[in-house]
Structure to design on (205 residues):
């Protein structure tokens, strides 16, 4: 969703570097899945650079991009938050994780049975896939990803959740206008916030 393959590569390299810093500074194994999220986001942007180079279409890079963006993130984010959350928050987060798993199954089915295509639209790439029940799937996706951060019981993750919710609206609005997307900067800032969270985490007892 950046405005060129070069921008995606540069942003992907930067986000990956932040991800490496997050992983190397983790103090507890339960924090590792969430700390590794920037590595996934960085790889995601590198994959999109390949989509740019291919001129869009429905090739392997497009499919990989969609798999990361849809079913994988729908599980990765709530699972990472559940692992890192304090015990008092894990029951409610378990329910959110279950929503993420069900949503990911629906999204994976849609990707498996229907074609996924990418179309270059000026400064953005539009991805199209045929989902049989898009409204509940989108609602489940947002609950799993944004909702898990908001319900994490961790002040820094709550702040990240608010930022993700607002940033997602901004990115969507600019994408709808086919203007320069903010996703590169958005992913980078999210990764930096996660690095701050990792550095502030106490050492496990």
């Amino acid at each position: 969703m950046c405005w060129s393959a070069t921008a995606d590569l540069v942003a992907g390299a930067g986000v990956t570097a932040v991800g490496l810093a997050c992983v190397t500074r983790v103090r507890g194994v339960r924090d590792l899945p969430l700390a590794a999220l920037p590595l996934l986001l960085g790889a995601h942007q590198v994959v999109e650079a390949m989509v740019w180079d291919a001129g869009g279409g429905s090739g392997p890079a497009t499919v990989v991009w969609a798999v990361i963006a849809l079913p994988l993130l729908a599980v990765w984010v709530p699972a990472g938050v559940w692992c890192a959350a304090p015990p008092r928050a894990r029951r409610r987060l378990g329910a959110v994780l279950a929503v993420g798993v069900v949503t990911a199954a629906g999204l994976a089915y849609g990707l498996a049975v229907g074609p996924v295509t990418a179309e270059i639209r000026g400064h953005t790439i539009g991805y199209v896939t045929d989902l049989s029940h898009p409204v509940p799937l989108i609602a489940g996706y947002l609950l799993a990803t944004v909702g898990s951060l908001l319900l994490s019981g961790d002040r820094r993750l709550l702040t990240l959740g608010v930022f993700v919710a607002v940033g997602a609206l901004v990115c969507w609005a600019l994408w709808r206008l086919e203007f320069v997307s903010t996703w590169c900067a958005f992913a980078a800032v999210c990764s930096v916030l996660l690095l701050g969270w990792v550095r502030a985490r106490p050492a496990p007892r």
